[in-house]
Amino acid sequence: MKLNLRLSTNGKLTVLKYLVAALLVMIIGSIIILSQGNSPAEAFKALGVGAFGSVSAIGTTIRWATPSIITGISAVIAFKSGIWNVGIEGQMYFGAFVSAVVGYQLLMPRGVHIVVCLLVAGLSGMIFSFIPAILKLLLDVNELISTLMLNYAALLFTEYLTFKYMGFDASELADAIATPDMQPTARLSVLLPRTSATTAIFIAIGIAILVHLLYKYTVKGYELKMVGENLKFSKFGGVNYKSTFLTIFLLSGFIAGMCGGTEMMGTFGKFRPGFATNLGWDGVMIASIAKNNPIAVIFISFIWGALKSGSFHMERVTETNRLVISVLQALFVLLVAIDYEALYKWFCDQKQLRMLRKQESGVQ
Amino acid sequence: MEDVILEVKGMCKYFGSLVANEDINMTVKRASVHSIIGENGAGKSTLMNMIAGIYKPSKGEVFVNGKKVVFRNPNDAAKCGIGMVHQEFMLYPELTVLENLMMGFETTRMGYFLDRKKARKDIQEICDKYKFSIPLDEKAQDLPVSLLQQVEIVKVLYKGADIIILDEPTAVLTPQGIEGLFDAIRYLTEHGKTVILITHKLKEVMEISDYITVLKNGRVTGNLTPAEASEQLLASLMVGREVLFNTQKQEKEIGEDLLAVKDLTVKSDDGVVKVKNVSFSVKKGEIVGVAGVAGSGQGELIESLFGLRRPESGEIRYKGENITHLSPRGHRVDRIGYVPQDRLGTGCARDSSILENCIMGYHVAHKFKNPLLVNKKEAEGFSKQVVEDFSVKAESVYTQIGTLSGGNIQKVVVGREFCQENDLLVVEDPTRGIDVGAIEFIWQKIIQIAEAGVSVLLVSHELGEVMELSDRILVMYNGEITGNLRNTDELDEQTVGMYMLGGKRDEA
Predict the structure, then answer these.
(1) What rounded mean pLDDT belongs to chain A?
(2) What residues of chain B lie within 8 A of the CB of A232, using their CB?
(3) Under a CB-based contact definition with an 8 Å cutoff, are residues A266 and A195 in contact?
(4) For B82, which of A306, B77, B173, B244 could close a Cys bridge (C-beta 3.0–4.6 Å)?
């Protein structure tokens, strides 16, 4: 894979835009931390140390970058084609539960077991995304609402299934309820010793690159993209939009389900209800920051992972609350969404207007 | 000395590095009709938008009644007596004409309550004075286009305009409607109002104007009166070379039926029957024009022909096969091409490259060497062919199509379908809103492709275009085909116009 590192003027502007947004986030973050009576310098230092300061810090960064990449790609698939799949979290729960059960129940050689777990995870996510897809295609139900609500259904239903699987007696220990440990043959190897980083990161990057290639070289990828650019135009051009919509839902659901699988096979090792605190939503945010570019998703996810890993450390060594980082992540999404070019144009117009008025008053 | 109402001196407008207007000087005399003509992208609209206070000039001055003015917004311009009627009407369909007229200029009692009575009286006075008869209590959505246009003009007068700018006012009208508009314009100028007219149509310019200003590439290339001008002269000033208006058509063989439509009935989205029991056929190598006032059912007819809308009943046969319920993809595979009216909404994806826009349709109809992969060489080759054959002005095929001018986008949209070796082309308003040079070019292409044996179904709201190109003309009125006329030299616009308005019909 060759990455084009020479940037066009357009690319330079985009990089500049990210830098401006990051700078603004830092400034606003400092103000928030100051307002809580803490030192921003100390907090950011702790953040940096927590993200990159040691092998274990780097491991944690990688650990959190992994699900961010996969859910981010799942969101990219949907958003690029104008489908608002915000049910990634729910699709991921199903993938995770099924792969955890398969990982415990079946006995297989190592390589095969991992592949099987990954595939059933993807398929479960895909089957769950089939519900909003059918609702949209047959009954024209807005997928934003159906996928959003199905997240709750998924969260509670997988919890129910866990109880069912473990026997309802276990419910006395509601906090500790989880599926049994997966077989070692279904677990991914640890990437850096004594850290939570696993080889799942390679699966994540692999998925991102495959999706990038899909858009770049295939006819289907072209159709997926054009459906998002202009649906009317695609219909007119002979794209079968119904089957394309179905593909988008299923593919996005498949990837979301795989994220659940890698989480189980990587860090967790067993399914615990509600394990994924907002991982699906992270994907939604990352896709919008990355402007639906699969390769950009990889980079943004590493920043995301670093922030997450750093924020835990920051909370331990300083007084600053970890939630500040969540606020800053959301702010970053907002600031990247701003159309700086239009803002600049407006500013120029105003300047020109002032000049004209000055001329006018000079004449009189 | 003559009475100058508006003077523009050294006006420039730059959009980034693009020069839209460069050193424009123009004087408009009171109570005259002053036409501004030029190709698309020549800077007419930019100039008018600056005069109407919508854009701010980069340089230059505007004088109204000899006094220098600077407009911050359209309201400032309105206060100086300048009003503009835009090409797209800015009326609220749900509101009555009276309410529409009051909008933004409400007369109130005690500051809060609308004073409809006074507004009605004032508006009625204006209507009486300038002989407009518009029903004030009807909803805007119930009125025909020609009346809506009058409403827009009255609105501008109500705001106290002395200078009325009309942007392409005749584009939406029938020949009869155009006559009515011209009568109104003459009446306005007799009563001391000044009219600035932006248009493409040279015939109209010659008929109505007192003065003509020609723009080309943002600069003035001519200031003249109709007496000094001729259509040929104006066209060459606009384009910078001689323009052939009369397309040369050769006698050609017309083959057997390629497309046969029988008793087709189509409903619009809201369930209204828009096409009623329509039957017609298109023969091989024939150009069949469809004329009609906008909204007579042409849009629905075309959509159902291309599989974008499901007909209620009837049958469409193509090459002898029933294609009534085929999807657009099936139509593409069967070598039917479609140039949609709405080039930005349906005809292209604005943020994508020229290449991505060119291969749409091609990728199903022709397929690449490997049908699963976009073959870069083939895609580039085809896009380059479109760009070269249709002389699209663009840096490369990877340029974003949205950055091109309207005429160039249209060339891509038309070129894509024409270069695909289709057997039938459904072409809808191929020259809408583009400049004279590009119109001539696209007309030539249509004639050429028909000579090569491709059938063309041409739907256009420009009657002139239909009459110029077609071998046969179908006239639609209210969802029915009321006329099936052979386009001979004897056929004139007035006759077709009568059919378009339902005043005349073929005996069935």
Answers:
(1) 87
(2) 345-346
(3) no
(4) B77
- Residue B329 has its nearest CB partner, among A229, A238, A352, at A238
Task: Answer whether B374 sits within 8 Å of A234, measured CB to CB.
Answer: no
Tell me the pairing of strands B273-283 and B82-85: unpaired
Domain count, chain B: 3
Whether B375 is in a domain gets the answer yes
Domain identity same for B114 and B168:
yes
Q: Is A184 on the interface with B (CB under 8 A)?
A: no
Sign of dihedral through CA atoms B303, B309, B310, B311? negative
Is the ipTM reported for this complex over the cut 0.85?
A: no
Produce one character per residue of B470-493: b if its CB has 16 or more CB atoms within 10 Å, e if not: bbbbbbbbebbbbbebebeeeeeb
Region class of B397: left (phi > 0), else alpha (psi between -120 and 50), else beta: alpha
In a domain, B499, yes or no: yes
**CATH number reported for the structural domain that contains residue B441 in this entry:** 3.40.50.300
Confidence of residue B1 (pLDDT cuts 50, 70, 90): very low
What tens digit of pLDDT does each residue of B398-455 get? 988 888 877 788 889 999 999 988 899 999 988 876 777 778 888 888 988 988 889 9
Q: Are residues B63 and B186 in the same domain?
A: yes
pLDDT value at residue A364:
45
One domain, residues B72 and B128: yes
Specify the pLDDT at position A2: 39
Domain that holds residue B205: 4-239
> B93 and B178 share a domain?
yes
Radius of gyration of chain B from its Cα atoms, rounded to whole angstroms:
24
pTM: 0.74
Counting the structural domains of chain A, the total is 1
Instruction: Say how far apart CA A106 and CA B170 lie, in whole Å.
Output: 76
Of A236, A349, A356, the CB nearest to B340: A236
pLDDT at residue number B78:
84
- Whether B340 is in a domain gets the answer no
Distance from CA of B402 to the nearest CA of A (A): 12
Q: Cα torsion for A263, A102, A78, B368, to the nearest 10°?
A: 120
Q: Distance (Å) from the C-alpha of residue B157 to the closest C-alpha of chain A?
A: 28
**B251 and B160 in a common domain:** no
Contact state of B368 with A232 under an 8 Å Cβ cutoff:
no
